[in-house]
Amino acid sequence: MELFEGATAKSLKAGQAEELAALPLDERLKRRIIDGEKNGLEADLEAALAERPALDIVNETLLDGMKVVGELFGSGQMQLPFVLQSAEVMKGAVAYLEPHMEKSDDEGKGTIVLATVRGDVHDIGKNLVDIILSNNGYNVVNLGIKQPVSAILEAAEEHKADVIGMSGLLVKSTVIMKENLQELNQRKMAADYPVILGGAALTRAYVEQDSTRSTRAKSATPGTRSRVCG
């Protein structure tokens, strides 16, 4: 029975590989991100580099794949382990392409402070955002993981940030982010810094309704301007 099961799994995998190989290059790369399939990734990236710049591959193809992953996760059609698998493939793809990326000539677009919030050590998504923004003309101050709100706000002031980005994978990190938004209001800094929140446990409704409603209710200053980034 085990032999038959092994043969079936092997046949299924071979069929999936054939189906993937039959796709146009652009669609194939996007599918690799969605499926978390790294076998053959570098060969496809090398072929894509022969056709267009590395940054275009990231912005126009790979990010489209991650957008689909976010939509599938948000609708309950993809579970977290598979999201992380896709993120790892995305990380590998960007790492392969990064030496080929040319810095955008359009520098000085703005400064963003990025940090994984207190108590969270996950930083794949945050670091991808760092690479992509840096190569698109933004100045990125990446504080790393497990950052308390005090360190984030101090860095924002020191570097005269235009935006603050907070990231976290854990469900409890969404609570920390909400507390951080409240802290911005309490310090009367909410009007100075638009906030981008990112992480698998976040939903657009939570960011744009629950968390911002809470900060407005507890502060006389304008509510923190926040957006969700999957």
TrEMBL record:
Region (Disordered): 211-230
Record bears the keyword Metal-binding: yes
Domain B12-binding: 109-230
Biased composition (Polar residues): 212-224
GO biological process, one term: homocysteine metabolic process
B12-binding N-terminal domain ranges (all copies): 16-109
GO molecular function: cobalamin binding; metal ion binding; methionine synthase activity
UniProtKB keywords: Cobalt, Metal-binding
An example Gene Ontology CC term for this record: cytosol
Name of the protein in question: Methionine synthase
